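Project standup — Tuesday

K.O.: blocked on the structure for the chain from last sprint. Re-posting the sequence here as requested.
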Amino acid sequence: MKNIIGQRYGKLVVLSASHQNKEKRWLWLCKCDCGNIKTYPNNTLDYGKRMSCGCEANRKPGLKHGMRYTKEYRTWHGIKDRCLRKNSKDFSRYGGKGIDISREWEKSFENFFKDIGFAPSPKHQIERINTLRGYSKDNCLWATAKQNSCNRTSSKIWIIKNEKFESAEDAAKFFNVSDVTIHRWCKGGNGTLKKPDCNCYRRYSL
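H.V.: unblocked you, prediction finished:
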């Protein structure tokens, strides 16, 4: 028996051997890119008779990218949901406050994916560079949850000697001082005067 585990045939990837049918042909357990798992005989795979589970026949009109079950598609759908659908639980914090999605991205997932690409890892999320603006090619990028948290409304921007930092910890490392020193430079306290070239600003709310 020819071992074809791991091989791809169109949208099908062979997972394992399943069993033999009445004609003594081996059936292989295959996973389609859409998520369906089915068994197919090796001859239909080898000769290109079977290249998917048939999901194209059930595909909604206009859905041609084959990425419906991916992180990237779910992200795009989530953006549209919170920016455009008034019944969304997150609409009040996004669409309700004027945070929109660009016409190009709203029009199609393909446009969104062309501009933003694959997420570098499962931990990456979409971040808006300027939280006062909406979702568009020039205002979004993939970022980790930690990086994204630095851009939330509760975060602060630290400006010290014309240098900008996302946190007191980053500033402390840059100047080789403690976090407490950074807070004293920017806010004063404990008898320490605030330095004129140091400040801390709360980010603008959405």
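K.O.: great, moving the ticket to review. The beta strands are 8-9, 12-20, 26-32, 37-41, 124-128, 140-144, 156-160, 163-165, 198-202. Helices lie at 42-46, 55-58, 71-84, 103-107, 109-116, 145-149, 168-175, 179-187.
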